[in-house]
Amino acid sequence: MVHPTVPCGKTTIQFGDSGIGKSSNALLQAMLCSVGGSLAGFAAKQGRPLYLDYEDSQDVHARRLKAIIGAHPELAGAEVPYQFCTEPLFGMAPQLMRRIAHDRIDFLVIDSLAIACGGDPMGAESALRIFHVLRQLKCSVLLLAHQPKNVGEGDPTIYGSTFNKALSRSVWELRKEQEVEHDQIRLGLFHRKSNLDRLHSPMGFLVTCAADGSRMHFAAADVSESADLSKGLSLTTRLKRALRSGAKTAKDLSEEVGTDVKPIRSRLAEGSGKWCVPMGKDDQREKLWGLLAQ
Q: What would the pLDDT profile of 75-99 be if each residue is shown by its tens digit?
């Protein structure tokens, strides 16, 4: 439905910390779906979106919509109907199914999972109920979710039951880098799970917001250019990037990528002859590694 994030007829979870732009990013994808457009690395099949909101209000939704159009006139024709929600998704399933059928909705955004599931978000029963409803809706779903507080670096997790990840067909993590009192935000979207195909490479965005909130501009960006966002890349990708400047020891790489030396040695051994190669030893008799092309 939206390449590469939302497969047709399947449920995708996009998760991340609070206040990093999940809603605006999801709204952009819904707008692209409405017009069948491409922008900032997304390419959408034309369809009819619907935004279910458990967290904010319609005036906030309208402001975001207007701000994105203000920066991207090509989306001026985008229509994203809005529904203010208070009842758990399983409780409003019959009327929602009727609306989806009547309005021929193709793409559903649900903001967000913890409130929509009702009951105990950590319990398996809540997750099973909400995914049972989503299966009956028979449309493409982008389900926004939070992550637990104090989550360890390199261990991205969806807040709630482990069934949330298990039952979704695709999972993306959104990360943010922003300086205080700066009007630009760097976002990184990292593919953490796919049941349908191989994992997609990370997507980066530079989001520029006008001080008065009248414009919100999205542009594609390279996540590796951000010190914080590059931490979301796989260890192998970070090692390849570090070796571009020349041969290094495992200890050198450990300091550069900020990871313990033991997993780095293991990854280098696995990649030997595939993407890296031993290139002799340094003055301390430590093995030097370089990219295979070098």
A: 999 999 999 999 999 999 999 999 9
Residue 276 has φ and ψ, to the nearest 5°, of: -135, 165
- Return the H-helix or E-strand segment holding 136: helix 124-137
CA dist., res. 125 & res. 139, Å (int):
22
Domain ranges of the chain: 2-223, 234-291
DSSP count for the chain of H helices, then E strands: 9, 15
- From the candidate CATH numbers 3.40.50.1980, 3.40.50.300, 3.10.129.10, 2.60.120.10, the one assigned to the domain spanning 2-223: 3.40.50.300
The whole-number mean pLDDT for each consecutive block of 10 residues of the chain, a chain of 294 residues, reads: 97 95 97 98 98 97 98 98 96 97 97 91 91 96 92 73 95 87 88 94 95 95 84 84 91 90 92 92 90 80
Tokens 């979207």 -> residue: 189
52: helix, coil or strand?
strand
Q: What is the DSSP string of 249-264?
A: EHHHHHHHHT--HHHH
Structure token pair of residue 12: 């995708």
Tokens of 257: 């990528």
DSSP 23: H
- Measured CA to CA in angstroms, residue 199 lies from 90, 190, 275 at distances of 30, 9, 19
